[in-house]
Amino acid sequence: MTTTHLRTALDLAAFGIPVLPLRVGKVPFGNCRRCAENACGGRPNMKSAGPCTCPGPCHAWAAATTDPDVIGSGVWRHAWARATAVAYHPGGAWLTVVDLDHAEAVTWARENLPATQTVPTTRGEHWIYQGSMRSVNAVRPGVDIKSTMSYARWLGPGTGTMTELPDIVRALAVKEPSTLRPAQHAITVSAPAGAGECRHRTPAYLERGIAMAEQRITEARTAIHTTVYRTFLAVLSVHGRCGCLTDAHVSRLFTAAQAKGESLRHCTDAWTNARTRLGL
């Protein structure tokens, strides 16, 4: 079945813009049969990717693709019939979206940011720049940055001429370093038989998983304690028995949690509780 959203997605993909379908609530569909309706244990009510142990990435921005065979067939072929919007991965298209959520944010942008391609949204505007960067939510009131490891709704081409990503936008993602210190004690994870070789294809899989975990913690706006614990649990459930986690990986997770206001004790307790639950 060909729908308006599917046609839009195929047109965008032809221009090199990775796309994905969204369902009610601006939530992604799964990208493989195993993950249809998030049966694999992904996060059905969240907008970030994973966790998932399928052969390929299949949630949110990680599922965005320019491959017409993926877009128009398989699970997605049926998803477009229920889709409420088309989304795209800005970073995958070498773009950055400054998402301005209300009139005050739009006024701030007009006074402080270089003019660029602008797309109206329900409550504000998307300002689109050429170039990619780290995605960060709430860089200031009503302002989110969507680029790598994120997705944005496609709301049309907008108006104006797209300009190069300015330093002032890049600077918005640079936050003051936390004065809280990450865990200094060594955290060991027992490795299974096989010299602790990770079963997950390549080291890049682990790196992507840690980066997504950091982003999940960083983007949390409520229930920080719960988010930190569940994120630790997700990381350990995938990599806790591989022997591939290092102190550096754990320190990154602790640092992200402490930047959200978690104490070292809370981080340590959450990590210990997650390990205990998984029998590590």
Descriptive key words:
280 residues; alpha+beta; 3 domains; six-stranded mixed β-sheet; 10 strands; DNA_primase/pol_bifunc_N; DNA primase
Give a concise summary:
By secondary structure, this protein is α+β, with helices and mostly antiparallel strands. The chain contains 10 helices and 10 strands. Mean pLDDT is 79; it is low at 39-51 and 177-196.
Layout of strands and helices, then pairs:
Blueprint: H1 4-14, E1 19-23, E2 27-28, H2 60-63, H3 68-71, H4 74-82, E3 85-88, E4 95-100, H5 103-112, E5 117-120, E6 125-130, E7 136-140, E8 143-146, E9 152-153, E10 163-164, H6 167-172, H7 203-219, H8 224-239, H9 247-259, H10 264-278
Helix pairs in contact: 7-8, 7-9, 8-10
Strand content: 5-15%
Helical percentage: 25-40%
Which stretches of 5+ consecutive residues score pLDDT under 50? 39-51, 177-196
Radius of gyration: 20 Å
The count of helical stretches stands at: 10
Order of secondary-structure elements:
HEEHHHEEHEEEEEEHHHHH
Shape: globular
